[in-house]
Design brief:
This protein is α+β, with helices and mostly antiparallel strands. The protein is built from eleven helices and 15 strands. Helix 4 crosses helix 5 and helix 4 runs antiparallel to helix 7. The chain is elongated, with a radius of gyration of 26 Å. The relative contact order is 0.10.
Amino acid sequence: MAGGIKQLSKGEILFREGDPSDAMYVIKKGKIAITKAKGNSEIILAELMPGEMLGEMAFFDNKPRSAGAKATVDSEVISLPFAALHAQFKTFPEWLRAMVKTVNSHLRNANQTIKNLQQLNSNETEMFPPHTITCLCGIISLIGFKAGEQKEEGLVIPASMLRNYTIQIFKQPTYKMDRLMEELSKLGYMKVEELGEGRRKITILKHKDLSNFVDWYNEYLFKAEGKRITVEESELTCLKAILYYGNQKTKDDKGMVTISLTEMQNNSMKDLGQVVDVNAPDSLIAKGLLQDKQTLEGNITMAFNIDEVAKLTPFWTLVYHLLKIPPR
């Protein structure tokens, strides 16, 4: 196999699981996913960035590829054929060759342990089960408290520490953390910037909100079933509507506001793009999140604690957004 730079289009296979091993690669640009076959589909064990190497473990034992590799975006890799590398390796002192082989053996064992952990988690039917959500969000929040550097745009956290805590301490797969940060970025909680050569700048934009979410959702998950108050995804439209109209009112010293549900029904199509009728809050009233409706001269009103609704609405929005992410 000839060395040099190899161009890969998004989705293109670099090598397949079980292929003969004849080279290692250094990622020059883009992202390469390490994949493992699972039935008729595959799971992603890790996603490697520019500056990282793959395929190096087979240099000493020439075993077939234990996993596949493919580009997740348009990428460039530098191919380093084993034939040329072996010729150079023979010129090393014998003690150095023995040391390198020993280090490689230790790395292979450690790599296999990590892969086993990632495969175990990847057997889940959901990308982000509830307790995985609290764990991964909690890791980000923890690193923010532990090593975050406050900048004008937000709290900048060290990417290397985040990766180490994810894999080594909390035993979570890095591809899930990367996907979580991607989704949190869409919702405005953080920003991830690729700086090249495997470096990333990770900024938490809403550290307090994310930390409060972790505390709230963890408490919710560990409550007895009968004591939980669950907002269904179908009820979020109503919550967002009453929050919209509640923000136009002045709250009292207890955080309570009163809105006209009649006006909400009449104006919601114009203001929010869909009709939210006067009966929409009924299920939330039955759960105790909102107070009972009142009728006076044909006008239906309702009081509620706007601070509580303002907290729950984005939290439940985040929960349902993440629960709907399909596994890869």
